[in-house]
Amino acid sequence: MKRTFNTTVRRLPLANARKVVASKWNWLTLALLAVCSVASAQMPTGHPLHAGVMPPGAIGRQRLVRGGPLCGYIQPVEVKLPAESRAAFAIDGNFSELQPGPQVAGLLVGAVYRLRVTDIPNNPGAEVYPTIELIDRLYPPAGKRLDFPVPIELTDEELNLAAQGMFVTRVIYVENPERALPVAQGKEGHQWFEVATGEDPLQVADQLGRPIAILRIGGRSPANGINDPCFTYGCPPVQLYERPAEYIEGSFNQ
Amino acid sequence: MTHSPDYNSAMPRWFRRLLVVIATLMLCACRAPEARMAMPSSGALPDGLMMQQMPPQAVMQASYVSRQFVDSCPSVPYDGPMGPPCACCNQGGGTSCGPVGPVVGPPDEYICDGGDFGIEAGVRTDWAIEGLEQEDTIVHYDTLSGEVIVQPSNRVCIYAPRFGAVREVVNPMNADRNEKLVAILDEMAPSQSQLDQLAGTTLQRNSPIANLGDQPPSLYRSQEQAMALLTPVRVMEVVGMIAPYCDYQVIKLGIIDNAEKPWIAKQIDAAITWTGDQSAQVTIDGTAAAELIRDEQPGQLYHVEGPNAPKIRLIKLASTNAAKPGEEVSFTLRYDNTGDQQIGNVTIVDHLSVRLEYVPDSAQASSSADFSTEELGDGSTVLRWEIKDPVDVGKGGLLQFKAKVR
After folding, report:
1. Residue B146 — φ and ψ, nearest 5°?
2. What is the ipTM of this complex?
3. H/E element holding A2?
4. Percent of chain B residues past pLDDT 90, beyond the cut
């Protein structure tokens, strides 16, 4: 006689308290995953940690950390001045001899350079101490490095504003050719925009092109003398070049 | 047969598996933080030795730009003083070089002209051209069988960065007044002196200050002076059409000379586009044409195999690979009928970049052609040459014009 065995499967119910705990764990897991997903999707673009109000040097050093062939590269800049003004870089703990503009100097990306500007038009006796901070570089063809310096313009108006106590921040950028304005540009000056109230100049420049340098005028006078290392940001190395040939004869007119 | 009881009925099996899958995906998506280079806190960086210790720079910079740009970027050699000379540099151009390998920068410092990128250009039955975008240069012609063929030229790039600036002017004194007690400021004599200085006549004399504050950022300042008139004009440009930069046999006669290949390659290498994947697709007689670009053939040559195969070669050269705003650049277009049949209604159209301004009356043609320009709403210019006579087999022509860098 064949015997038949029947197996009965019966689901054992969980206690209600355990169900509640398990459900809470489920919701907690889902919440954590959702938060992680949102955080990972917020990838930084442009200058997420940067703003025009950051102290000099912070943006440039952050840019070096982001990588690229920037460290050690000497980027020529051309400092343009009003006709009667003089300027000097802080070199080796002292300000060098005051020279008229334009001046071409090689600067390092990420460093902060202090200048001394005197003979401001319509403001005799006043001196301002702007800073230049390079946050990127150019990639010119071989042999063209000095032909295309980054223009740093210290205008008459901005020097007077700084002498009166204003703080001027000017972000110089390389214009995106795809969004270029169809206007001619002379050799003596580039286009500039006045940022709207509440807007960050660095972010606006980032939208218009690729920020290269930040010029800050005013805001601080040397309390401990102009040769204070803190005031001159340690005097990073400067490579001074000869003045452009077209300006040696004194034909420059701002 | 035994069955284990399902103790996790509150967490079903499908849900647990789903959690495992999601967690696995999240963990796989997580990236380790990038290796950060230890940088000195000050700008006083050591010399070339430090550059030698950072080989990942080139790789990181290559990922900074698009892959297409890296693959097809023209010559952007590293010109910095740091590091030893690189053995990978190609003197003929076309190879980027730096102290730690190839150095490639963003393309925003170049103005390009030539080729057919973006939407492919086409010709309607009324001879209107569609899809001709900025920086495009094409030629279209008729074959004996009545077909209209459109072909692009090669691409010429000029290093001409243009700078702009964004300015912000703030008054820290106003902020101090808002944050501090008015009574304290009133008691401080120096503050009163500064207030008097701010309200002095300096601001009144500089009336543009008030205007600048009212102007929205969309407005811009453009300064232009008559210095451009002093730009020296080379005598060679006056004597004839063949300027020194394009004085080659292939430009003058359409004959390729082996001795000239390196020089032509140097001119064209600076012209190779960064975005090669956007090359126009040319069809001739309904058959996909093959693009021939190799060392022994400068320019771009499109053809189909078999008899009655029309061919045309369009070469574009620029007088310089770098120019500043205000300078003039000469462009040369050489076209040759390299096919086996006569072609007619040859029309060459060049849509200049918005950064290039056509110099009036500078267009020249070696053969009889109707030249016209058209100013578009975006500020760019379209140049159009309509060659009057049919181009026989083996014949060609030369077109030249000048453009001013804005």
Report:
1. 90, 10
2. 0.74
3. none
4. 1
